[in-house]
User: Fold these one by one.
Assistant:
Number 1:
Amino acid sequence: MPVAAAPLALTRRHAVAALALGLAAPLARADTASQRREWPRGRAAPALDLPDPGGTRWQLESARGKVVLLNFWASWCAPCLAEMPSLELLAQRHERDGLLVKAVNYRETDAAVRRFLATMPLTLDILRDADGTAARAWGVRIFPSTIAIARDGTPAFSVVGELDWAGAQARDWITPLLAAPHP
């Protein structure tokens, strides 16, 4: 079973409460370090066809021409929760530039996702990987993990661990993908 990026001494309830108060991100960030990994040359993007909590399906191939971030997360993962506000901010800031951020929930029920969204309302698009097949196909074993996909549908890199997506490091990684011409 995958493990969270950092072993924080927070229960899920405490993590959500700390996040709501603006405390979780500094706590988690002190214990975690994100790592950028280039996508293996020649390895194609796995197919992705997942439902949102309402049952509407989304396919990666429908996003060709956009830059896509697939963020694999779970509500029990404190670093996942800590980075979500900055992911949401990144998505809002760059929507007009053609950025889509899809938050792929790992192996939780619709009810669990709804409970999470009731405590932490997000505008990010949530997709459900109910059985973990998508995470396995994309090579995700640590949470959070985010895969950046270029406009042509080719995975560019992954980020393993929590990242401040509103920070300079993320900007340096995302800007070239957004600046690339449409295919």
Number 2:
Amino acid sequence: MRLDDVIFLLKALPLFRQVESEALRLLAFSASRRSLRAGDILFRKGELSDGGFLVLEGEIILDASDSGAPSPHIFRAGALIGQAALFAPIERPATALARERTQLLVLTRDLIERVLDAYPRSAIALRDAVAEEVRQFSNALSKLSI
């Protein structure tokens, strides 16, 4: 996949929508890529994260159960896996498995920090995007009858 195509996929994500084009270009250029075959495991439930993944092509399925039963969580091209892991080390809540030949962009926390250090306006845009997601989540929770 061409660099401009990767930048397009990043820009389509709400998290990166307001990030400067130069920052996205640096992120897309500097990130490594990972190829998986059908059945390969991307990560296992319980592992400590060091970042997230952008699906460039193919499909990843998440299995949060310990039984190996199919999960409805399927990530296809353009999906971001592990958004919270971009900013903090978290325990993976599920095992991620390639359903078919899959290409991923590996977005480590270290890389995100370096890019945001170089582009402070993009860091602010990212902070604002995360804050908006938290506000929306909080509003949705407040509407639930518990």
